Amino acid sequence: MSFTYPLDGVRELVERVDAVQDDAPRRRWVLRDDNQRQYHGVVHLSQSPLFVELLWKADARSREQLVGLYRLNLPALVREGYARREREHAPGDEVRIRFVRGDRGVVFIQVRADAPALPVGTVDMAT
Question: How many domains in the chain?
Fold first, then answer.
């Protein structure tokens, strides 16, 4: 059985898109296996929806592979436990988003290893 991520039922949280308007907040992040198979960054809730172009590569010298271009609903990701406020009970709107590549090439949004994981894409580890 094959899946296309993210699944339809999580569109309120994250959605794959084909393009982004020029003035929309956007990030370009590269998930690397030699960096604990993760990428995380701090963004502002006020930037929601945030668009992320996510790429993957095995190490610094490998070729980049597009995982996907995503629209992230930051408040919803925080509410559902897939992202976290950078400083609990502190002023400000900073949020930490963490992407992780799992053992079978599935890429997740996940706060930490023991937290719920939201699958958003896959990578071809054979390339």
Answer: 1
What's the confidence (pLDDT) of residue 36?
Answer: 94
Give the structural domain span for 115: 8-122
> How far apart are the C-alpha atoms of 83 and 66, rounded to whole Å?
22
Which tokens is 121 given? Answer: 């894409």
DSSP code, position 35: G
Contacts of residue 101, Cβ cutoff 8 Å, sequence gap at least 6? 31, 33, 37, 38, 56, 107, 108, 123
Q: Where are the alpha helices (DSSP H) in 19-83?
A: 74-79
Q: Is residue 54 part of a domain?
A: yes
pLDDT means per 10 residues in the chain (127 residues)? 74 93 88 95 92 95 95 96 84 90 94 95 84
